[in-house]
Design a protein that fits this description.
Blueprint lengths: L24 E6 L6 H14 L4 E3 L2 H4 L11 H20 L3 E5 L5 H14 L3 E6 L3 H7 L4 H6 L21 E3 L6 H14 L4
Parallel strand pairs: 1-3, 1-4, 2-3, 4-5
The structure holds adenosine-5'-diphosphate and magnesium ion (MG).
The site of adenosine-5'-diphosphate has 17 residues, from helix 1 and helix 7.
Length: 198
């Protein structure tokens, strides 16, 4: 589960100038609810800020309140949600910001469209699959969604009764089961550092 086929894309990949913040990167953390996307993004953001990077978090829960207000959870609206967030992330990254995006993004074609937007603009893009099995996520159940779905109070929960298309070739796949937050955050931070992106 540690395959990473895509090279980090964009002109700053491995370039010396990137560490000075001349060009940012979008780091998209995709995965099931309660996989650990927000937790890892926040921990990495803290580390990056500590070394002088400009960092923004575009968290799915927050962006849905304003940027994607009114959108639902059907396929088309989920796609639109991801494109809007991807648009903003690319603008930020193009202007030297490390844009960390902990957003489920369940559909591969939506994620690929965001990647292509970055590639078209020469903006570095890193897809991270936070690969926590649904059995583990449903025990964590940070927001109580798995319990609500099981009780029949909600439907359309990603990974349970709504699709999640597992990324086939993410730049990085992080397992979180049985690992500390510090450990998984360090894995992502090290990945970015080694590629000259952080
Ligand atoms: N190694 C780990 N990495 C990230 N989160 C972890 C890890 N181990 C346990 N957790 C816990 O899993 C939960 C993940 O919640 P959250 O980050 O909100 O998920 P998501 O944003 O993917 O819905 C948190 O309570 C976090 O403390
Ligand atoms: Mg989250």
């Amino acid at each position: 589960m540690t395959t990473a086929h895509h090279p980090a894309t964009g002109p700053a990949a491995g370039a010396a100038g990137s560490a000075t913040g001349e060009c940012g990167t979008t780091v998209w953390l995709t995965g099931l609810p309660s996989a650990g996307k927000t937790t890892i993004a926040r921990a990495v953001a803290e580390r990056l800020r500590g070394t002088g990077h400009r960092v923004e978090l575009l968290d799915g829960d927050e962006t849905r309140e304003f940027l994607s207000a009114g959108l639902g959870f059907g396929r088309a609206d989920r796609h639109t949600n991801v494109q809007r967030i991807g648009f903003v992330a690319e603008l930020l990254a193009r202007n030297g910001v490390m844009a960390l995006v902990p957003v489920i993004a369940p559909y591969a074609d939506s994620r690929d469209a965001v990647r292509e937007r970055h590639e078209a603009n020469g903006t570095p893009y890193v897809e991270v699959h936070v690969a926590t099995p649904v059995e583990v996520c449903s025990v964590r159940d940070v927001k109580g969604l798995y319990a609500k779905q099981a009780a029949g109070e909600i439907s359309g929960l990603t990974g349970v009764d709504d699709p999640y298309e597992v990324p086939e070739n993410p730049e990085l796949r992080i397992r979180t089961q049985g690992r500390s937050v510090a450990d998984t955050a360090a894995e992502l931070h090290t990945f970015l550092s080694e590629r000259g992106l952080a």
